[in-house]
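Translate structure to sequence.
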């Protein structure tokens, strides 16, 4: 697991992530990369497709530093998968869940300054209806909460998801999900289905706490029938990853997951709306090179 070689590097920035957090951190982050010995090209991207295209055009083995949120990071990873570039994720969004789960510093300057202690590892890449993601694809109550959180006008940081969750509580009514995991089908009334790759979302919710980033499998966690207090308790426990033992939680693993519901719902992936259900989630094993701490708990 060698460290990245110093040389040319590309810094991709999402100007809208975290209400402009990436742009605010850009000057100091760029200088830290130069101080670390990189000849730097900076690009403030025009959107997710632009980020994917620029990572796809990067030189094999070169560094692509990513200053943005989780959805932006997944888009860059899709391009790096094709180019063979090495991705350095830097926390430029609100939740920064993949950065958290991989064990990198939430301060981009600290992350850059720790480069000598990072190693190159290959991560699985999730595909939610073909859209690349790294953390969690989800449908149900949590998707509605995510939608409200994204629309929040207040700058609440990771607490924006708590705001979205409270608002979604007021509107949610149980639906019936049908979930197929490698052709094993289950149907149940419930609140959510989460399909984890790295397995963390919502600003620290370890909804798929046993997920590993390099095992070639998706962790599927579903919350069935529950009271509103029961749902709240599940999310509180998920900060510690201690919710899997609940009787209304089901957990399985597989490589292909198909989700449908009895009412119109959307599938989200790393906070980005993907498509209306039904939808298919798949995994591409060890598809992208990342720089991560050598002792990261996200790996098998």
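Result:
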């Amino acid at each position: 697991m060698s460290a990245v070689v110093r040389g040319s590097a590309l810094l991709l920035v999402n100007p809208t992530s975290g209400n402009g957090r990436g742009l605010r951190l850009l000057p100091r982050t760029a200088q830290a990369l130069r101080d670390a010995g990189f000849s730097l090209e900076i690009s403030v991207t025009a959107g997710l497709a632009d980020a994917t295209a620029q990572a796809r055009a990067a030189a094999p083995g070169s560094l692509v530093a990513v200053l943005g949120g989780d959805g932006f990071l997944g888009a860059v990873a899709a391009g790096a998968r094709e180019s063979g570039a090495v991705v350095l994720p830097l926390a430029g969004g609100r939740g920064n869940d993949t950065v958290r789960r991989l064990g990198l510093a939430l301060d981009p300057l600290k992350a850059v300054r720790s480069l000598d202690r990072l190693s190159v590892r290959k991560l699985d890449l999730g595909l939610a209806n073909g859209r690349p993601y790294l953390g969690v694809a989800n449908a149900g109550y949590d998707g509605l909460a995510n939608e409200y959180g994204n629309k929040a006008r207040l700058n609440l940081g990771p607490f924006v998801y708590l705001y979205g969750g409270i608002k979604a509580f007021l509107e949610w009514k149980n639906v019936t999900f049908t979930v197929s995991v490698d052709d094993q089908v289950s149907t149940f009334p419930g609140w959510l289905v989460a399909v984890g790759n790295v397995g963390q979302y919502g600003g620290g919710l370890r909804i798929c706490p046993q997920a590993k980033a390099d095992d070639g499998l998706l962790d599927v966690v579903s919350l069935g029938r529950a009271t509103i207090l029961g749902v709240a308790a599940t999310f509180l426990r998920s900060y510690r990853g201690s919710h899997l033992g609940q009787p209304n939680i089901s957990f399985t693993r597989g490589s292909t997951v198909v989700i449908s519901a009895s009412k119109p719902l959307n599938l989200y992936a790393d906070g980005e709306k993907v498509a209306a259900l039904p939808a298919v989630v798949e995994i591409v094993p060890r598809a992208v090179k990342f720089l991560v701490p050598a002792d990261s708990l996200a790996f098998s």
